[in-house]
Amino acid sequence: MGCYECCMRCLGGVPYCSLVATLLCFSGIALFCGCGHQALTETERLIETYFARNLQDYITLAYIIQYFQYVIYGLASFFFLYCIVLLAEGFYTTSAAKQTFGEFRSTMCGRCLSSTFIVMTYVLAMLWLLVFALSALPVYFFYNMDATCHTIDILTETPASINQLCVDARQYGLLPWNAVPGKACGMTLSTVCKTREYRMTYDLYIAAFVGAGITLLALVHCSMHLAVNQMYLRKLRHRAKEERRGYDLYGQLQRDRGGTLCSPYPAITSDSS
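RE: above sequence
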C-alpha cells in the first residue's frame, strides 16, 4: 500500500460531521462560560457601585452570582468530557468498527451505545434551549438600559424630562424593593452607560448569548447526525440480512436437488494466460 492510499484510508475514517459538531460545541461552551463568568463579575460591580449603597441590599444577588459561576465551572467540565466522548464514538463507528466487524456490521453493544448517545444529546439540546433563552434576559436588560441612555443623549437640552427617564434594577428582580436607590435616572444613568465597565459587561453578555446559540447548534447538529447514521446503519444491516438469507436459501435448494441447481448470481471468472 502506497503513501497516497494510506492517507486516503486514514482520511476516510475521520468522522467529519462529529468533528465539526465537537469544534462547534467546544467554541460555544468556551465563549459562553468565559464571557458569562466575567459578565457576572462585572454585573456585581455595577450593581454595587451605581444601584445599591447598602451591602444588605445586594448580598443575595452576590450569592446568586457566585452560585451561577460555580455552575459555569461544572458546565465547562461536563461539556469538555462529553464532546470528547462523542468524538471518540464517532471515530469508533466510522473506522474501528468497519475494520473489526466489516463494512455493514456492528455489535449489540455498539448499537445500544449509539442509541444512548442519541437520547442523551437530544435531552441536552432541549435543556440547553432553556439555557439559551435565559441567557437572553441580561442582554434584554442591557439593551433597554442602552436605549434609555440613547434617549437621554438626544434630550440633553430638556433636563426636566431627562430626570424622568430611569432604569430600575428592582423591576428586574436584581434588588429587593427596599433597596436604596435601586435605580439610576437622568444624567447619572447616562454617566453609567458611558463607563468602560458598562460597555464591557454588555458586550460580554452578547458574546455569552452567541456562545449559547453556537452550543445549541452543535447539539442539534450532533443529534441529527447520530440519528441519521443510526438509520443508515440499520438499513445496511437489513440489506445485508436479506442478501445472507438469499444465499442460505440458494444453498439449501442446491443441497435438496443434489447440487444441480444453478446459481442466480453471476459467476466470477478470471482470465488465465
